[in-house]
Design goal:
6 domains; 559 residues; OB fold (Dihydrolipoamide Acetyltransferase, E2P); alpha+beta
């Protein structure tokens, strides 16, 4: 009876012992290292249970494992017993559980955590946070892109947890947030010591198209390209290089945004202070073309002093040409100072003013009446443009092409490239116009032929053609036409066919038209004039004498 009671008590105690002291699977337990062999540590977790853990689970990334017999460690109990009768335990899982508890508390407190970068993955790196593995995005490694992350691998350093999800096992950390916070404190300290106008030393950290960032000892300032030198700087790399130490002046400090504007040229003398004295108006100087635009070219007179040659001041003759076809970058040219605006730091320059006006030169060397020769540059509906010395053009109007042909007909005989001769008839320097005449080359034949002829004069002409409406005649090489009605006073004699080519006829000049270059001629008018003259000399109609008597008397008188 007593023996039976003892067995029941033992079973109850054993059952109670199992229920109370035997650890649950999936929990962290403490154990003691009892042996290290074959790359594994044998750990006694109590309750007559032992398990094995690979030594690498006791090592930090990049370090050798530090474990020895007798060390007390915490491990994660996966199963109480496996097929070999050993407990299945893990040091990594124990560290992970411990780490997650610690990291969750740090995340809630927004505290920093310590870790080491140990691997590279797509888009970033892996970080060991003392048992838990976190993801470090590439953009969160540093305040600026990191080309080589080698020096950071395995180095214990602080990180900021950005996001974590225990259920999914995700942790995202940032190293950049730590650096920015540290830099912000350092920046505030440095900015507090800076004042506008201070001259300080700095190191060029980065160069962009619009300027350079200069490290002033923990805080960066922007040195804009326009503040690097008084002269034009096309790109900062022309005068600066990364890593170079330079002296700059603090132009502006914004205490709130921590932005600092720097300048280099402010430490040098401003060349504009002496511009008016060195470059008086209408003086000529040599400069270098630094930039070419659609509206002109910039010419550097000295470092820091540039002037603009407007396109209208570049050439006397090339009016609608891009400046790049007249000058080229880096070319040395002579320019004249036209205007200075010190307040706006502007100098207006002229290129053509350094050369004589070609229209003035032409007017001096080719007075009116001078014969010139040139190539037909252009043919328009109102005349020809002829190339002349000095790279200028003269125009021959339609009305100045020929004496005998209409302008529209005469211009058909010319082609671009033809070399022609002409006479200068007018030079207008102000309007930059030169008028030429081709028909004036041989003189004015009409004027020469009719110089001594007046209206009412009797001249002798030769018949050159017989037509139905009259006859064509010629006088001193000038052609005229006598209409049928003007061939005779007597209607019966107004027949063109009674004349022959080559006949010489006395005719009366009824009109002289210099525009149409025609003489108005009439045989009828001559006969009427002769009759009137005879009547005046030998009688009148009132005397009773007949016309035959008067003419007979006149003829007898002549005899």
């Amino acid at each position: 009876m007593c023996s039976k009671a003892t067995m029941e008590e033992f079973e109850a105690l054993l059952k109670e012992s199992f229920e109370i002291d035997t650890p649950n699977e999936g929990s962290v337990v403490k154990g003691t290292v009892i042996a290290v062999e074959a790359g594994q540590a044998i750990i006694d977790v109590g309750y007559k249970m032992e398990g094995r853990v690979d030594l690498k689970e006791f090592a930090n990334p990049g370090e050798a494992p530090e474990i020895a017999v007798g060390d007390e460690v915490e491990v994660f109990l996966d199963r109480v017993e496996n097929a070999r009768g050993e407990a299945v335990i893990s040091r990594d899982k124990a560290r992970r559980e411990e780490a997650w508890d610690r990291l969750e508390k740090a995340y809630a407190d927004e505290a920093r955590v310590e870790g080491a970068i140990f691997g590279r993955v797509k888009g970033g790196f892996t970080v060991d946070l003392g048992g838990a593995v976190a993801f470090l995005p590439g953009s969160q490694v540093d305040v600026r892109p990191v080309r080589d992350a080698g020096p950071l691998m395995g180095l214990k350093q602080p990180f900021q947890i950005l996001k974590m999800d225990r259920r999914r096992g995700n942790i995202v950390v940032s190293r950049r947030a730590i650096l920015e916070e540290s830099r912000a404190e350092q920046r505030a300290e440095v900015i507090g010591r800076l004042s506008e106008g201070d001259a300080v030393d700095g190191v060029v950290k980065n160069i962009t198209e619009y300027g350079a960032f200069v490290d002033l000892g923990g805080v960066d300032g922007l040195l804009h390209v326009t503040d690097m030198a008084w002269r034009r700087v096309n790109h900062p790399s022309e005068i600066l290089s990364i890593g170079e130490t330079i002296k700059v002046q603090v132009i502006k400090v914004n205490k709130e945004t921590h932005r600092i504007s720097l300048g280099m040229k402010q430490l040098q003398d401003d060349p504009w202070n002496t511009v008016e004295g060195k470059y008086p108006l209408e003086t000529v100087h040599t400069g270098r073309v630094t930039n070419i635009t659609d509206y002109g070219a910039f010419v550097e007179l000295e470092p820091g002093v540039e002037g603009l040659v407007h396109v209208s001041e570049m050439s006397w003759t090339k009016k609608n040409v891009h400046p790049g076809k007249i000058v080229s970058t880096s070319q040395e040219v002579e320019v004249m100072v036209l205007e200075i605006d010190t307040a706006k730091r502007r100098v207006s320059l002229g290129l053509k003013q350094t050369m004589r006006n070609p229209w003035d030169v032409f007017a001096e060397t080719h007075p009116e009446g001078t014969e010139v020769e040139g190539e037909v540059k252009n043919i328009t509906e109102f005349g020809l443009f002829i190339g002349l010395p000095g790279d200028i053009d003269g125009m021959v109007h339609l009305s100045d092409l020929s004496w005998d042909q209409r302008g529209e007909e005469a211009i058909q005989e010319y082609r671009k490239g033809d070399v022609v001769k002409a006479v200068v008839t007018e030079v207008d320097v102000d309007k930059e116009r030169i008028s030429l005449s081709i028909k004036a080359l041989g003189g004015d034949k009409f004027a020469e032929a009719t110089g001594g002829v007046k209206r009412g004069s009797i001249i002798t002409v030769a018949v050159t053609a017989i037509e139905d409406g009259g006859i064509e005649v010629e006088y001193e090489g000038m052609k005229s036409f006598i209409r049928r009605s003007d061939l005779s006073r007597d209607r019966g004699e107004q027949r063109p066919e009674r004349f022959q080519v080559g006949d010489k006829l006395d005719v009366r000049v009824t009109n002289i038209d210099s525009k149409t270059r025609r003489l108005g001629l009439s045989i009828k008018a001559r006969e009427i004039a002769e009759e009137r003259e005879a009547v005046e000399q030998f009688g009148s109609s009132d005397s009773g004498a007949s016309l035959g008597d008067i003419l007979g008397a006149a003829l007898k008188g002549d005899e």
